[in-house]
Amino acid sequence: MLSEFEFIGNIKSKYGLGKIGDDCAVLPKNSETDLLLTADMLVEDIDFLLDWTTPEFLGHKALAVSLSDIASMGGTPKWAMLSIAVAENLWKTDFLDRFYAGWFALANEHGVELIGGDVSRSPDKLVIDSTVCGEVAKGKAILRSTAKPGDAIFVSGTLGGAAGGLKLLENGYGHGKHTSDFLQNLILKQLKPQPQTGLAKLLHTHGIATAMIDVSDGLSSDLFHLCKQSYVGAKIYAEKVPINEGLVRHFPTIECLQMALDGGEDFELLFTVDEKDISLLNSPAVTLIGEITANIDIIELTDEGTSSILKPGGYRHF
Amino acid sequence: MLSEFEFIGNIKSKYGLGKIGDDCAVLPKNSETDLLLTADMLVEDIDFLLDWTTPEFLGHKALAVSLSDIASMGGTPKWAMLSIAVAENLWKTDFLDRFYAGWFALANEHGVELIGGDVSRSPDKLVIDSTVCGEVAKGKAILRSTAKPGDAIFVSGTLGGAAGGLKLLENGYGHGKHTSDFLQNLILKQLKPQPQTGLAKLLHTHGIATAMIDVSDGLSSDLFHLCKQSYVGAKIYAEKVPINEGLVRHFPTIECLQMALDGGEDFELLFTVDEKDISLLNSPAVTLIGEITANIDIIELTDEGTSSILKPGGYRHF
Fold first, then answer.
1. N or C, fewer C-beta in 10 Å, chain A?
2. What pLDDT score does B113 carry?
3. Least CB-CB distance to B7: which of A46, A81, A119?
């Protein structure tokens, strides 16, 4: 069976689609600005369970995932469309009012205007498609395809938190059910992710990142996407990977590293930096975790002196 | 229970959304051009049945409905995104290859480039969200909100064909199952609609239409949308409504008029024209069916000398 990435690759090559393959498509706007466009679909019982989240969190997340795509290109989000298929039993409740309240709370924070979309009836499951249109200085979108051997690899924040939150939800923990702050924080990482728009803007303004992607599928997968698009490889130092602190307090060490490497939906930024610029990034907000190599498509993981090949892991729809 | 239009109206006024309420949102591009953006969701077992259509027709229709929105603003479609949630049993077949073949056949006809989207797993039903981005000369998008009393009301092509096709499908007829051309044509009106991009371009170039909308919900509903946005009313002459010929051959006369007035998905253009320009439209491709009045939100239907109020009818998701 084809994976979703193979399928997209096939469509792309069969129909000669040059604008597909990054977090957003880049379109010409005017002499100073390019447009960025991205779409993300969330499907009930596949991407979320209604029992685990709140309508407000879901509205927030539907927009957050697309804002993260705009951030990963160094762009500023401006406009959004929201298409939603909803079953009648949910339509009759205050679900959508609360969903939009969550959506608009985040939209207002980022100055994003809702300009369209569609409302359809669904026979059963809730399906949301979020489209966001952003802007970036002309020719300055930060792509996945421009990393080069020798570049340092950085990641923002910490990893594995969203995967840890998902595991807690699977194990019967819930939002608001427990007093422990660190468990709540893990669950919130999963249910209410924060797109790294501020950091993205800073990196864009200073022209520091040579390539960038957001960590949505998981570090191992997203680094693989970046390497594939850039025709390079990478080396990652396991001991440098910034693992979410709450994760370490609740899960065994070995599991934590796995969740940080393969767990998706942290929506942190993974980016590369020319060696000469590394000193500019002396901040606790980002961590140097490895370097780009010339070993095309090979990601090497070194862990306490031993080295292995890191395969793209994490969740796949197909 | 709120209707979908009431729901959208509430969200629009609660959050002060100025760009919602037409077929497309209009965004600034550069000094010469505006952008048009539209999204349309199609849900299995609500908007289509897999047993009734082919993957190619469905791919065609997913794009056609959005091209019709761009056409109704007088725009030219340029780029598209396609988000699709698909169940594993369908993923394993050649369904998506054939779906994309249908999509690209129409896209290539119109010079539309696929620039992004999303692929997700669905627990059962197929859900498609189509986004199209087009262009129109700056300040020249043809809106719903600019009709004025005294304007003539025109519609392109004929009406009721898609509704007739749907009724045939419901009654066990199918595409390719029957030799009668006129039944096949009705079914194709439903399964493979043709957006009126050529006529839209002509109307736009000559600046003839004072307001425009596409007939997607049904004449009575779409004319109501146009009147509501323009703060006007309308008078329609039943005997002038161009009813699909095949419909007349297969269905009783009284049912035909109802299908032409309320049946959705014909994707013809409904537009208004200043009285002085009526003579410019001496073409069999369009029909004068009535006029705009000052009776805000009231649509009067005159039929053989008697007059009644035409309520917005046709299919509603909610």
1. N
2. 98
3. A119
Mutate to test the interface with B, among A7, A20, A78, A83 (most CBs of B within 10 A): A83
**B5 interface with A at CB cutoff 8 Å:** no
What CA–CA distances, in Å, run from A50 to A43, A63, A95, B21?
A: 10, 17, 10, 30
The pLDDT of residue A176 is 81
CA-based nearest residue in chain A for residue B88: A318
Chain A hits for B29, Cβ within 8 Å: 29-30
Of A297, A295, A294, A298, the residue nearest A309 (C-alpha)? A298
Contact B119 A8 (CB under 8 A): yes
Contact A20 B129 (CB under 8 A): no
| Beta pairing class for B25-28 and B33-43 | antiparallel
* Strand duo A25-28 + A33-43: pairing: antiparallel
CB contact, 8 Å: A47 with chain B? yes
Q: How many CB pairs under 8 A join A and B?
A: 182
Judged by a CB distance cut-off of 8 A, whether residue A45 touches chain B is yes
Please tell me if residue A114 touches chain B, with a CB cutoff of 8 Å. Answer: yes
pTM: predicted TM-score of the whole model, two decimal places: 0.96
Q: Write phi, then psi, for A53 (nearest 5 degrees).
A: -115, -175
Given a cut of 90, is residue A253 above it in pLDDT? no
pLDDT digits (tens, 9 = 90+) for B136-189: 999 999 999 999 999 999 999 999 999 999 999 999 999 887 678 889 999 999
Q: Look at A46 and B85 and tell me if their CB atoms are within 8 Å.
A: yes
Strand order in the sheet with B152-156: B209-214, B269-273, B152-156, B286-293, B233-237, B299-303, B306-309
| CATH level 3 topology of B4-137 | 60s Ribosomal Protein L30; Chain: A; (3.30.1330)
Range B152-309: architecture per CATH: Alpha-Beta Complex (3.90)
Which segments within chain A are labelled E, that is strand? 25-28, 33-43, 76-86, 113-121, 127-137, 152-156, 209-214, 233-237, 269-273, 286-293, 299-303, 306-309
pLDDT in tens, B44-83: 999 999 999 999 999 999 999 999 999 999 999 999 999 9
Hey, what amino acid is at A19? K
pLDDT at A179 over 80: no
Query: What is the spatial order of strands in the sheet that A33-43 belongs to?
Result: A25-28, A33-43, A127-137, A76-86, A113-121
H or E stretch including A217?
Answer: none
| A41:B104 CB<8 A | no
Q: Measure CB to CB from residue A20 to each of B104, B115, B317 and give the nearest one.
A: B115
Domain extents for chain B?
Answer: 4-137, 152-309
**Cα–Cα distance for residue pair B178/B296, rounded to 1 Å:** 46
Across the range A93-110, mean pLDDT stands at 98
Interface test with chain A among B98, B115, B126, B265, by most A beta carbons within 10 Å: B115
Residue type, A264: G
